[in-house]
Please model this.
Amino acid sequence: LQKLKDFDTYEVIDDTGQERVSTRWVDTIKGDGTRKSRLVARGFEERDHIQSDSPTISKQVLRLFMVLCVMYNWVLKTIDIKSAFLQGERFTRDVIVQPPRGYEAVGKLWKLRKCLYGLNDAARTFYMSVKHTLIELGCQSSDLEPAMFLYRVNGNLHGFILTHVDDFLYGGDDLFEDKIIKPLSIKYRTSRQESGTFTYVGISIIQETDKVILHQNDYLQSLSDNDIPPLTRDCTRDLNSEEYTMFRSIVGKINWLANGTRPEMSFKTIDLSTKFAHATTTHLNDAVQTIRKLQLAQGHIVYPRLSRMQNVSLTVFADASLANLENSGSCGGHLIFLNDTYGKCALVAWHSGRIKRVCRSTLAAETLAMANALEEAVYLREILKLSTANNVPVLAITDNRSLVQAVESTSLVLEKRLRIEISAIKELVELSNVTLKWVPGHYQLADILTKKGVSANSLLQVINTGLMVQLP
Model:
């Protein structure tokens, strides 16, 4: 409650029958065992439509800027804003709240001057405050990534800040520290500042002299027996409600790892999630065994120091499997690496998922997977162009010769819907500095993202060392 007074969050007004939002205390126990109480407004009681969107940085752009930090020899750092929502901009609308139990005064209510936790626009109000502050200090924002702020002087990048609500990740030179970070730290009270080795949005980050290492091994080791049940010895049967909840929880944990630092688990996540409609003890055991194997075989991703931007390119591996999911669904996946001419590489993006329409042929599945992959690669190239003023080339790798022939040929494929996707790829190849290349199947690193039974060794060798395979 003292923080509310320190940040001038409210003023006491007379109760004349105004509409008001009730409040409650929310108690949490922190990692060190201390108890924290927070006053929260019941925002769902507000009747008016309130714009509540608040951007956070995407994982792909987050990884991309970690690579840039190593390239520019900047130290990755993070800061956490203390009582962030209470440090946002002053309200431009009237919000009346009921004082919490034990602090009521007869005939009195609180009119908020600052946003209170629990209100629908709490996160947005804080984001807008941060955005205005950074722009006033000289940073540039982008419509592509509203949570990304760049500090450029005379066309040269001197630093960046990426925001995830009240957690900031940044890197830059001395000028950036002096002109941006110091004034920002004065305006907003911070509770945590770390560099070198720290955790950001659930990812453990270790920065060494010539590389950055990402992992989630601490998260894996923190899982207790309550999170991972013993294997079920029963004959195959449908899961009861408690087991079904546990099954979904474990698949969610595997998905969190697959999206964070374990791309080799992407297809396993898809395969298990297709069993939600009719899960059995066999599927539960499969999920338990998967998470236990991950605990034993800890993994990481290495981002080495790449050469200068003039020697950098994006390499895309796209693959698909026809009708290998339930209900004749096809799976598509891709990997996107930022790599240099000396063989060093950094995996900055990956995706594996059900292709959004029914595919009639392998060519259709491969084409749609490649179209999705190039869409993301071109987006990342625009982010690089915005931040470094370099338009890097894109190399797209496929193991489907028919796709390359369809793009290079003037003949049309029979399936008319497919012509649209092939035309889009052809336009990128002809006009956007994109090269499409066929390789034999054993060079296809994205195989692990689209089918069962594929060894993860080739992909793990690349992401654990930061060295790209030699392509023919």
Summary: The longest strand covers residues 312-325.
